[in-house]
Amino acid sequence: MALIAVDPRELATIVTTLEMTRRPPLRPLPASPLRLVRWARPESAKYRMLFARVGGPWLWYSRLAMDDAALTAIVHDARVQVFAAVDPAGVEVGLLELDFRHEGACELSYFGLVPELAGKGHGRWLMAEAMARAWVPGVRRVWVHTCTLDHPSALNFYRAQGFVAVRRTIETFPDPRALGLLPPDMGRHVPYLADGSDNRR
Q1: Of the CATH numbers 3.40.630.30, 3.40.50.150, 3.30.2290.10, 3.40.50.10420, which one belongs to the domain with range 22-174?
Q2: Which segments of the chain are extended strands (E)?
Q3: What are phi and psi of 121, to 5 degrees?
Q4: How far is CA 85 from the centre of its chain?
Q5: pTM across the whole model
Q6: E strand or H helix at 155
């Protein structure tokens, strides 16, 4: 057993893959003032803005690093469905992305709400909406992944919804704050080491 050094300009995380191989029992949709709106062929800038608002605090970065051509190739694909969760004032406060590009499977590619809504039951509502859309005829597996950079309750939330952990991997990648994709004070639960400072101070 040994400690492995990580470059100060990189992050390391443990990724857990979870899956369902049968549709969960139908339950009443949890009450929520939010509504889900399909974004067909979203504009790159609009998509990235919501992606950063929802995922920035947890250091989501992959879609911020893509150029427009790579991003639109994914989110404009007919087998990928992008939804925004919208509050009563019409403000986008959540993101759900379903990927059906692999036969017989649906990935919850991105699932999340802005941090201000955490712990208020909206996650259960969003998951119920996700399940209703993911389990279409022909789908035999729905899967999702989370990591140790995510909200500390994320893994247990997915397990409580019926997902089963099946794989664990270690991922290293450039710190998006060091790349300028996110501000240095984002993701305050993870110290920013690229410039020798610690953004938790």
Answers
A1: 3.40.630.30
A2: 10-20, 35-39, 80-86, 92-99, 105-113, 141-147, 164-174
A3: 90, -5
A4: 13
A5: 0.92
A6: helix 154-160
Torsion angle in degrees (nearest 10) through CA of 98, 53, 170, 155: -70
Distance between CA 121 and CA 146 in Å, rounded? 19
Tell me the per-residue pLDDT of 18-74, one tens digit each, with 9 for 90 and over.
999 999 887 777 788 999 999 999 999 999 999 999 999 999 999 999 999 999 999
What's the token pair of residue 151?
């909200």
32 with 122: CB under 8 angstroms? Answer: yes
Identify whether the C-beta of residue 85 lies closer than 8 Å to the C-beta of residue 96: yes
Query: What are the φ and ψ backbone dihedral angles of 133, each rounded to 5 degrees?
Result: -95, -25
Residue ranges covered by each domain of the chain: 22-174
Q: Which residue has the tokens 């247990």?
A: 156
